[in-house]
Write a structure and sequence with these properties.
Chain A is mainly α. Helix content of chain A is about 75%, strand content about 0%. In chain A, helix 3 crosses helix 9 and helix 4 runs antiparallel to helix 9.
């Protein structure tokens, strides 16, 4: 195993250990309530980047996958009583299926047309949910989540640890994709689809795989949400703010590597949470817009690119 | 069929009302050096795109080693052994020179270590010193070499070099030609599409000339140079 992979694995073990231990050492559950949102966005940004960053296909439909995950988990838990891990797994499978369907319908178009088509997915899914009474329709549905198990001191801490595990699994998946033949193929697609195809890369199949993986992660990100809020309704579950953050966070952090979306999400989601509490919940959206404009104008490669350029200059 | 590696039978391609190619019949022998010339818009690149699978011919068929590949996707043709470089270099930006070669090696079957194979090919084209550099940092000549290296790293049986010398100086043209000659000596059939006449005349055993999508002449360099139809295409009446 390469040195970087060993370091990555060690990092995962440490982070997971902290995820289980911190709830017992930090007594205020509010930190875990806020931490859940930050980790949710780490997962969303990471999932979005598999298709949008590696392959260069800008997906405006992240909220569609997220919302699908939210509603499937809520439905399976409240009606069938499925355990939480199965709800999360089912949401990931649904996200993958939705991703492949979206890919089949849209991947033959590129650029802005692809982006608009993916935006349509959100509207279609939200409209469907609005009209299904079993899902609560426009008024939404209440979800009474599972009791926290013995290893977690409370519901906020439990949701936090579950979200942490999903985030870690998503980042590990994104890193595997990045360093494997899949990631190299996707980056080749991003650079030149014709050249990639003529180099033996099955571009359509690879893009469909990216859609499936991205969709699975985005839907998994939404699956614990009903238990976090205890209530779901379509406008919040399919909120365009989720789609906006899904794009903004990887762009700010950098889309070339798995670390970019993680960095962007940690930074932006944390600042958003602080702004929500200290200034106003509306102002945090303004903040996202301003930061996004600044990065697109002055650092289009994102934070990761800024760091690597700085490191490059520092070398003799 | 053993004496023909690639064969096009009555291939036609149109874009709307504009017939870009054909009908064209063309054969390529194993290890042959074939030059394709013709003015801009004569159908040379459309021909390549029909061979490599970027375009599907409207009519006719393309055969590779006796097998009809007309309906096979481009990436499968590349894996079979039909490789190409592009008129305008298309490096995989964001990757190093070495990674650019690892892409075809990930998807085309090659015996042995991928990295060793990539390093050997990069050394053979004179890019050994640039292995870990970003592909965006290469000069025009180096980009041309990278295109060729990426095309030949998967051990192709046919290499199509689409204007691989465009924009290069005399010495640089010689360098690219020596790479193509060396590749051909290893048994690879090379199709050279080129506007630089002295290069294509020097390289090719046989040259075919296209005009408005049709093959109008075929022969050795000397025969092509004397052909009145070719002279008319290039010099007018």
């Amino acid at each position: 195993m390469r040195k970087n992979s060993i370091l990555f694995l060690a990092g995962i073990v440490i982070i997971l250990a902290l995820g289980f231990l911190l709830p017992w050492t930090i007594r205020n559950p509010f930190y875990f309530f806020v931490g859940y949102v930050v980790l949710q966005y780490v997962t969303i940004a990471t999932g979005w980047n598999i298709l949008g960053g590696y392959a260069g296909y800008i997906n405006f439909g992240a909220a569609g996958f997220f919302g699908a995950g939210v509603y499937l988990a809520a439905f399976l838990y409240t009606t069938l009583g499925l355990p939480l891990p199965l709800c999360i797994l089912s949401a990931a499978v649904l996200g993958a299926i939705l991703g492949v369907l979206m890919g089949y319908l849209t991947l033959r178009i590129q650029g802005v047309y692809f982006a608009i088509a993916t935006l349509g997915l959100v509207i279609v899914l939200e409209t469907i949910v609005h009209n299904i009474s079993a899902l609560g329709g426009a008024s939404g549905m209440a979800v009474y989540g599972p009791r926290p198990p013995g290893w977690s001191p409370g519901p906020s801490q439990y949701n936090f640890t579950v979200m942490l595990m999903i985030a870690v699994a998503s980042v590990a998946l994104a890193r595997f994709v990045e360093i494997s033949w899949i990631g190299r193929g996707l980056r080749a697609v991003r650079a030149s689809e014709d050249a990639a195809e003529c180099s033996g890369v099955p571009t359509l199949r690879l893009k469909l795989l990216a859609c499936a993986l991205s969709g699975a992660v985005l839907a998994a990100a939404g699956s614990p949400y009903p238990f976090y809020t205890s209530y779901v309704e379509p406008v919040t579950a399919f909120s365009l703010i989720i789609g906006l953050n899904a794009i903004a966070m990887p762009l700010i952090g950098g889309t070339k590597s798995w670390a970019g979306p993680v960095l962007g999400a940690l930074l932006l989601a944390s600042v958003q949470q602080i702004a929500t509490v200290t200034i106003s919940s509306e102002l945090n959206i303004l903040f996202v817009g301003l930061v996004l404009i600044a990065f697109v104008a002055f650092a289009p490669g994102g934070l990761a690119d800024l760091f690597s350029r700085k490191q490059g200059r520092a070398k003799p | 069929m053993n004496d023909i590696v690639l064969s096009m039978k009555a291939v036609e391609k149109a874009f709307g009302a504009f017939r870009a190619l054909g009908p064209v019949d063309l054969d390529l022998r194993p290890g042959e050096r074939l030059g394709i010339i013709g003015p801009n818009g004569s159908g040379k690149t459309t021909l390549i795109n029909c061979i490599t699978g970027v375009y599907r011919p409207d009519k006719g068929s393309v055969h590779f080693e006796g097998r009809d590949i007309s309906h096979i996707e481009a990436h499968k043709r590349a894996r079979l052994g039909i490789s190409r470089s592009f008129q305008i270099p298309r490096p995989f930006a964001g990757m190093t020179v070495l990674e650019n070669l690892l892409v075809p090696l990930d998807y085309c079957h090659v015996d042995g270590s991928k990295e060793e194979r990539a390093r050997a090919v990069l050394t053979s084209v004179g890019l050994a010193g640039r292995i870990s550099h970003p592909s965006e940092s290469l000069s025009q000549l180096e980009l041309r070499k990278l295109e060729l290296a990426r095309a030949l790293v998967g051990n192709p049986k046919v290499l199509i070099a689409d204007e691989a010398m465009a924009g290069l100086s005399g010495e640089e043209i010689d360098e690219v030609l020596s790479i193509l000659f060396a590749l051909n000596r290893s048994g690879v059939a090379v199709i050279m599409i080129e506007h630089i006449m002295h290069a294509v005349m020097r390289f090719s055993e046989r040259i075919v000339c296209f005009e408005t999508g049709r093959l109008i002449a075929s022969g050795t360099s000397a025969e092509i140079a004397e052909n009145p139809l070719v002279q008319k295409v290039y010099f007018g009446e």
